[in-house]
Prior knowledge:
Organism: Eulacestoma nigropectus (wattled ploughbill)
Strand order of the largest sheet: 5-2-1-6-7-11-10
Number of domains: 1
Number of helices: 8
CATH class: Alpha Beta
CATH topology: Rossmann fold
Shape: globular
Largest sheet: 7 strands, mixed
Radius of gyration: 16 Å
Number of strands: 11
Helix content: 25-40%
Structural class: alpha/beta
CATH superfamily: Class I glutamine amidotransferase (GATase) domain
Protein name: GAL3B protein
Low-confidence stretches: none
Distance between the termini: 12 Å
CATH architecture: 3-Layer(aba) Sandwich
Order of helices and strands: EHEEEHEEHHHEHEHEEEH
Amino acid sequence: MAKRVAVVLAGCGVFDGSEIHEASAVLVHLSREGAQAEVYAPNIPQMHVVDHVKGQPAPEQRNVLVESARIARGNIKDLAELDITGLDALIIPGGFGVAKNLSTWATQGKNCSVSKEVEDVLRAFHAAHKPIGLCCISPVLAAKIFPGCEVTVGHDTECEQWPYAKTAEAMKELGCRHVNSQVTEVHVDTRNRLVTTSAFMCNALIHDIHDGIGKMVREVLRLA
């Protein structure tokens, strides 16, 4: 039978929701591997809305579930309805929505809180020893919830190629082990059954990001 994978989104758009290319890559690679994606998002207001042309906040309000439905082509469920029974794995793409809507990392860094619904889902999959795939900024969720875990967000030295490398230092301060990696690589924490890859934490060609996410998906399915 096809493996069933929960994919949790955080809105629609890199600056205030899920990174669309990452979410699409996850869905494409799950399909290619013969797995069944079940898409969820929390039914909550976004932290704010960003005009993606101007790169500035816009004076309006949007809902995370409603916006995520754009990526899921309407085939989406409220995260509150997620039941891990029958599900084999969990994947959370990146985008600033992870740090703004699924947690408060964007404003509080390592002192952030994770949305209760999101934390409950992560803990449920972890307790059931079901694999969790995280890319781009979403490994910060694991760093906050699972002390001592091993993850990657790419590199820990900031430069033009790795503009968000300070994230790795903050994660280390939370007690997790950060493993430097290239954008086409993944890191597998076998003890915690976590698979992470850097994606758009790196200024890289989009096909390299797509390939790295493909490796993440395949490793998640291998562990499932």
